[in-house]
Specification:
The complex is a heterodimer of chains A (434) and B (375). By secondary structure, chain A is mainly alpha-helical. Chain A has 17 helices and two strands. In chain A, a hairpin with a 3-residue loop joins β1 and β2. Chain B has 375 residues and is an all-alpha fold. Chain B is built from twelve helices and no strands. Chain B is globular, with a radius of gyration of 22 Å. Classes of the chains: A mainly alpha (434), B mainly alpha (375). Chains A and B meet through α2, α3 and α4 of A and α2, α3, α6 and α12 of B.
Chain lengths: 434, 375
């Protein structure tokens, strides 16, 4: 309403964020856990005086650099770009609340980037002790960036007492801060092992390959055993509506969650019987399969976490279509046309009803729904009359669970319903038109 | 009916710091960002030309320098991005109403920045890591990456000028809400962009001068050649930059231009300095290139140019607020500073810089150690 809505064809803005965000978190979690993996493996190689393991971790660090520094860092900026485009109001609110949190994260990010560049460039060019120190600095700074951003991401679902106090720390250390942090650390540690599988099969020395393969599996298995516990803890802290959604309130979210659990279980089994039990027979193809299964589990978890926030983008503060909870009532009184900035006309007439209806759709629905693409509205119109639609629109939160209320007056609701009727597939025209 | 000027309302949440502090950080971190940005952008084209020359003429000096560029550019790229995040953050908190809107209007070009940077970045790593194996093909890799980075810069120029002209927003949005607009009808967009593009060659030239000064100790002939070569790039770029700067100034809307022509004392003084300082810097570097002992002259020339960068960054801010005068006042905001969090940030910033400093001393120690063994 305050900002223009960018029309993203077919997939919609929400899905666009999802694609870029999931891509980013695959790599970002790896960057956090992988930092620890690098330095601990390096230390182990020194202690056991194992040159092949050292050679391995050196090569792995280069792969790590190319993946995290380029794809990880740039896709992180990509999330920023995308949320600003798709959810400018929410991004603005988050930035007004947490600009100093981001500034703090940026310092850690700066240290992180500096240390990984030095770490990879200085193998065997500085003392072992100094090189390990750089490795520890990298691992610590990676973890600290997660510790900050986790506060902002978890805040969106559990705003907690911030809604009343508007206090920075209340927002950052919100009710799901800790369980979410623990879950993400476990994912990071597991991903460090999962990515290590990709490079370990290249090791030529068989003895070393078997050692490092099993060693990498040990990064994955305990983390996967603990993960369900952290998830349960997380589940107890999320709002009741969120628990309801994942418990079946929205069917496809429950399904996604179920697939996520299956994928995580499969991941455990694959790692157990593959690299852990039979490291000698472990191949690159198996490593790729494990990465894909891990990615599927990750995708489900992020997808569900995003979806249970419905109908909000910032819980109890802003709806997913950027309307503030506090302003909806006044908009319903005076009408959206009087308040919205990016509507082409201020007066609703019979002549412009359809045009305004379309613009109302853009302003209120298009942040989640498309016409004919992802989260398509068309199937919801089948067998409906305009009157049905008007009633549904007036009772959105109860008719279609977990949707924000329609923010507009009666005439505007009629205009939107009228435009929606034009999208109805010809074969399914509802009963008699009013 | 469509209003001429539609600007989103300020966020309901107050600014978490005074405007002067956020603006100070915006300008400071932008200054930090443009230094590696210039090295990545100018460096890639300079590397291409230097490498090409080295291969065609079989010049050892050119090839050695190009090899050093290949190692430097990915690092410059990493810091361009890292240091670019901070000004983007402060820009959003201060100018978000304008910035998000202009970004939405040109959403696809804007979003493509991410893909372009990833491609360019991998190209730079390819140039660096596959130097020997790629042979002549590496020239095209670094040139392509340079072009991609140059395109990214152009997209930035478009978005950051579009956000200054909110009077265009409503009409553009209602003509097409799919986020495919550009800002080509803005008269300053081309000279503004060129002002950045040409500057990147000057800054890269200075980087080569600094690099040459460092090499004089171990390899006198090569070090002196590099100082001369860098000074040449700097001089040529600075002369072209004078012309581009005048074009940019004349292309500004009259009200904004007049700020620099006496209406605003600070702006006028800065413009004077912005013309004078690079001329001084250029003369010092020409003298350095001809001198037997170039260090003192070169360092003073580079220091003068560092001042010029500060002047330019402030002028750019005056242009921004000049464009917005009467439409948007960045100081007109409800402020509720989070002083406690700001103090935590300041402490972490100092600690973070300390850690980076510590790591650099470790690197320098290791290199000194290696030099000693080598000697």
């Amino acid at each position: 309403m305050n900002f223009p809505v960018w029309e993203v064809p077919y997939i919609g803005g929400g899905m666009l964020i999802g694609i870029i965000a999931v891509f980013h978190v695959f790599i970002a979690h790896f960057a956090v856990g992988g930092g620890l993996f690098l330095v601990l493996t390096e230390r182990k190689a020194y202690r056991e005086n194992n040159p092949t393991m050292l050679e391995y971790v050196k090569k792995h660090s280069k792969f790590f650099l190319l993946l995290t520094l380029v794809l990880g860092a740039v896709s992180g900026v990509g999330i920023w770009f995308t949320i600003g485009l798709v959810h400018p109001s929410a991004t603005s609110s988050l930035i007004h609340t947490f600009v100093w949190g981001w500034a703090i994260e940026w310092v850690f990010f700066f240290v992180e980037i500096s240390s990984i560049i030095i770490y990879v460039a200085m193998w065997e060019k500085m003392s072992r002790k100094a090189h390990l120190t750089i490795g520890w600095i990298y691992a610590a700074s990676g973890f600290l960036t997660l510790a900050v951003i986790n506060g902002i991401v978890s805040f969106m679902l559990t705003t907690g007492s911030w809604v009343e106090t508007r206090n920075f720390w209340d927002g950052l250390f919100n009710p799901t801060y800790l369980p979410s942090l623990v879950a993400r650390i476990l994912i990071s540690v597991a991903f460090a092992g999962v990515y290590a599988f990709l490079t370990v099969t290249r090791l030529k020395d068989e003895h070393a390959r078997i050692t490092v393969t099993r060693y990498s599996a040990i990064w994955v298995l305990p983390a996967l055993i603990l993960f369900p516990l952290s998830l349960w803890w997380y589940y107890t802290q999320i709002p009741a509506t969120a628990q309801e959604i994942v418990g079946g309130g929205i069917e496809y979210i429950q399904t996604t969650a179920t697939y996520g659990i299956i994928a995580a279980a499969l991941l455990f089994v694959f790692v157990l019987i593959g690299p852990f039990w039979r490291p000698r027979a472990f191949t690159f193809a198996q490593a790729v399969v494990i990465l894909l299964v891990a990615s599927a589990a990750m995708f489900s978890w992020e997808r569900v976490r995003e979806a249970v926030r419905k109908p909000y983008i910032i819980h109890a503060y802003m709806y997913s279509n950027s309307m503030l909870v506090s302003e909806v009532e006044s908009i319903q009184e005076v009408g959206l046309l009087q308040k919205a900035k990016w509507i082409s006309e201020r007066e609703l007439t019979e002549a412009n009803e359809l045009k305004i209806g379309k613009e109302l759709f853009r302003a209120q629905c298009a942040s989640c729904h498309t016409v004919g693409g992802y989260q398509d509205v068309v199937p919801h119109l089948v067998d409906r009359t305009q009157e049905d639609l008007e009633i549904i629109l007036s009772e959105l939160p109860s008719f279609r669970g977990f949707m924000p209320p329609f923010a507009g007056n009666d005439q505007e609701r009629r205009a939107l319903a009228k435009w929606l009727m034009t999208l109805q597939p010809a074969a399914s025209k509802g009963g008699t038109q009013p | 009916m469509i209003e001429q000027l539609v600007i989103p309302a300020p966020d309901a949440i107050p600014l978490p710091a005074p405007v002067w502090l956020l603006k100070g950080l915006l300008l400071f971190t932008f200054l930090l960002h443009i230094i590696p940005m210039n090295l990545a952008l100018g460096g890639s084209f300079t590397a291409f030309i230097t490498d090409l020359f080295g291969r065609k003429r079989n010049s050892e000096h050119h090839l050695t320098l190009a090899r050093s560029f290949a190692k430097m550019i990915p690092i410059a790229m990493a810091f361009t991005i890292t240091l670019g995040v901070a000004p983007l953050l402060f820009l959003q908190v201060l100018y978000g109403q304008l910035f998000y809107t202009s970004s939405i209007l040109m959403a696809w070009p804007w979003l493509s920045v991410i893909a372009l940077i990833i491609l360019a970045y991998y190209g730079f790593y390819l140039y660096s890591f596959r130097w020997e194996r790629l042979k002549g093909a590496r020239l095209w890799v670094v040139l392509l990456s340079g072009v991609l980075v140059a395109v990214v810069g152009m997209i930035f120029s478009h978005n950051l000028t579009l956000m200054l002209t909110p009077e265009k927003f409503a009409a553009l949005y209602h003509s097409n809400p799919s986020g495919t607009h550009w800002n080509f009808d803005e008269p300053t967009v081309v000279p503004r962009y060129l002002h950045f593009f040409v500057a990147s060659f000057a800054i890269t030239g200075l980087f080569v001068v600094i690099y040459g000064l460092g090499k004089i100790k171990t390899n006198k002939a090569y070090g002196k050649w590099a100082v001369k070569y860098g000074a040449m790039w700097f001089t040529i770029a600075t002369i072209i930059q004078m012309a581009v700067g005048i074009w940019f100034l004349l292309a500004l809307p009259r009200d904004v231009m007049m700020l620099f022509m006496g209406q605003n004392m600070l702006a006028t003084i800065l413009l004077g300095l912005g013309i004078l300082l690079p001329v001084i810097s250029m003369m010092l570097l020409i003298l350095a290139a001809k001198s037997e002992k170039p260090r003192a002259l070169a360092v003073s020339g580079i220091s003068v140019l560092a001042l010029t960068l500060i002047v330019m960054v402030i002028m750019r801010d005056i242009v921004r607020d000049g464009y917005l005068a009467g439409k948007f006042d960045v100081f007109d905001r409800v402020v509720d500073p989070q002083w406690g969090v700001i103090a935590v940030f300041a402490a972490i910033l100092v600690a973070g810089l300390g850690v980076v400093g510590f790591m650099l001393t470790k690197v320098i120690q290791a290199q000194l150690h290696a030099d000693r063994i080598g000697a």
